[in-house]
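Researcher: Next entry: Ribonuclease P protein component (Nisaea acidiphila).
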Amino acid sequence: MLQPGFGRAHAFESVFAMRNPSSGSLERLQKRSEFLNIARNGRKAVTQGLVLQARTLEPGQAGPLRIGYTASRKVGGAVQRNRARRRLRAVVHDVLNTMAVPGHEFVLIARANTLTRSYNGLIADLRRALSKVGALKQEAQS
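Model: Predicted structure:
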């Protein structure tokens, strides 16, 4: 029997909290309508390792950064798509809060190169994409 605070979910929470303790809060996009709204009303940047869609929130909607991940069947089978999404989540958890301007919603779309691109290459792709959509912090541009 699992004790409160010692279950499987708690173990995952503590791993993510330890991974980047300085990261701000991130919320996940989960509804299809949210993804479509960003695609319809946002800006898009394509790089070798990923596609970034971003939408600026209205002033009254400001809150934590909201992000969604997707990988189509062009990336590969289920195992490859899951691996690509995990790689995107790792990049986001490690660097997005230090590079992105608050008040945005993002969708990261995996590409076939997401699987083979180096981690540093994915970070550079994310930085370049944020710059293209106008969501890169001034401190991160140097």
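Model: Note for the record: DSSP finds four helices and five strands in the chain.
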